[in-house]
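Researcher: Watch the backbone:
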Amino acid sequence: MKKKERSTEHSPTTENRTVERCRLVFYLRLFDQESKDIIGHLTDISTAGLMLVSVRPIEKNTIYAVRLILPKEVAGRTELLLKIRCIWCRPDPIPNFHIAGFNFVEIDLEQKKLIDALTEEFSREESLAQDNSERPACSLTHTTGR
C-alpha cells in the first residue's frame, strides 16, 4: 500500500541521527505488501528507521506497508511487517542504483524487539565511519561484477 503524505518535518541527516543504524550481513529484500513488488534491499536498520538500495528512485514522503523476509527465524518470527515513510532518496555512487532513507510511521514494542534481535544476530558494522562520515550504502560487487 502506497500513500503520499505531505510533511513539514525536515529530513534527518547523519549529523542529527539519534539512533545508530546497524548494517546487516545480508541485503534483505523489502516487498510492498499490496503489490508484492520488491521496493529495494535493506542495507541498515535501527528502531528509528532504515535505509535501502533500489534500482529506481523512491519519491519522498511516500508511505509503504512493507514485508521483510528474515534470513532465518529471529525471536520466533520469519518476517517483519512495517509501515515506513521515505524521508530522502539520492543516486548511489554505483550507477543505476539509488539509496533511500525511511522512518517508521508505526512501530510497536514487539517490532522494536525484533529489530534489536535482527541487528544483534546479523549486524556487521556500524553505519558511521570513525570520522562520523556516512559509509557507502552498499557494495554490490557480488551482483554487478565490479
Observations:
- The first strand starts at residue 2 and ends at 4.
- Residues 27-121 form a domain with the Thrombin, subunit H fold (CATH 2.40.10.220).
